[in-house]
Amino acid sequence: MDLMRLDLATLAYLAGSSANDAILARLHEIGHAGVRISHGYVIQHLIEGAPTVSELGELLGVTQQAASKQLLELERLGYVERVPDPVDSRVRRARLTARGRQLVEDSRRLRRELDVPGDAAAKRALIRLLDATGGTEKVLKRQVVPGD
After folding, report:
1. Nearest to 142 by CA among 52, 54, 23, 58
2. Can you give the residue ranges of the HTH marR-type domain (predicted)?
């Protein structure tokens, strides 16, 4: 098969999926066993914030129960903790633990390692594809949800 015959969208999807699989395997090797690709959708909303389960469900476009399940998995793995809201102690907020922040750092490092010289042209082509399909704003606002 001549990969150059594939359309850009298909090639981007296949390359992205392959990269994600490779990064996930490396994360497991370096001590982040149990982490799944879907956890990244949750973690992206905990990097700069501490949402409630309801808020997280809205951000992810899923039910409160689905968001709660994801948080529970990440809590069991030691990446997330739930803490009282500073204003209303009845409200619980989710935030990354030190282990969760280490996961973010490790993931970012492994992704940077996949960058290769001359990849600026490929990045520009993928950004043009995002623009052409209306996906840029969702990416910039961290509104890409599981299944998108």
Report:
1. 58
2. 1-148
